[in-house]
């Protein structure tokens, strides 16, 4: 057992790596599951604990010859989409899962649900997810999804953040979401273990909570199959057959698997980290990237029971209640990319990079000081998919009729899954969603130049995207976006495809350089960064260009 404070000291003594080194990838596990030395929050690996068919040959049930819709991927979005298709009356809906339900990224997700976001559409999407997991599924199946309503607490350590939370509270009132802005003293009374000395206040949402990935997906598929849908596990998809009609329009014709093919006019790509590979089968570009995403589970903490989940946006951490312990995680500002995504990575984990994770430890110990002397029971570091603008990818791909996307959820697939699954089902059945899903719609990449001079996911040479984990509502004029924009520079290297971007923040400088598939630090030829480049977070940046243009 390690202590959080010891882990932080060890990370601090290691030589600082450059972000270029941070993009060097190490695949540390395979489809066989976590390595023996890996500490996961289970007595045995997920393969041993949950897969009675380990080593079984063939799909879990015979493949139908035809289907009206085939959903690829048995994670949160796939199961939610299948459930809502069946609930809206779609017959002949089939879900294909390469291994077992949740085996990709969903099984290790934190499962947090925060009801308030800066977008009114997202507030509605989150509200629907909450209704599905807390009420609808239980009424329909008689099963408990694992939903726990312990509340949520947003931390404001500066005046701008507190003002943002006040706006969120006002938005919540319009949608019936109960929330309260608390003073530091009120926050201390609610959460006695919290350090409030550096706080301006908090936003408390009593009906936030936590979802159980396995329980939710199992209950979703139970409800869907009761309405006639089919779930077929252990059935890897190997190809998507496409035809060109008399007008020259490309259309989905069939899904091919290792065990046969299914004729279908509609495919839904809910493959998560593997969505890019599924897209390539159909000739569709899916602009997302896979990264290592981690959290640790602590030993028992006296007095933590029944506390709300905590989100500190400025420290980029969350504290999730897990019984009498906490899960500590957050968005990595210097992430490790998974460059070559393995198709054999089911219920697998990577080794946790303590140097990358150190920032979360520091933020967590500052917020809940008792963590400094609390042991670490287990670590979880798995793959997660992220998009250039931190928005999910949804809707019908313009270059292929009948090919829909439901992927790239930036570690928010569980909490957005219910609302987005419903909208995706409407999209498929009625040709359009019920809500304004423009910011998620993959089609807007084809409507002309984006603010960056390119288009969302277009892959054109030249355009740049700067992106990172969202830490502020940049649409809000009170957020200090100008500070980050002013601190960014880009350098091009004549004669090759290298590009370099540096971002200056209050603490550190980040630098990424691409060169012929490698990451390298070379001499810089400074040039101003185009003002039209979209900046989400200036503390760490990544620029897609040339061979990295799949991000653009």
TrEMBL record:
Coiled coil start-end: none
Single GO biological process annotation from the record: sarcosine catabolic process
InterPro entries given in the database record: FAD-dep_OxRdtase, FAD/NAD-bd_sf
Top-rank taxon: Eukaryota
Occurrences of domain FAD dependent oxidoreductase (ranges): 69-427
GO cellular component assignments: mitochondrial matrix
A GO molecular-function descriptor: sarcosine dehydrogenase activity
Protein name listed in UniProt: FAD dependent oxidoreductase domain-containing protein
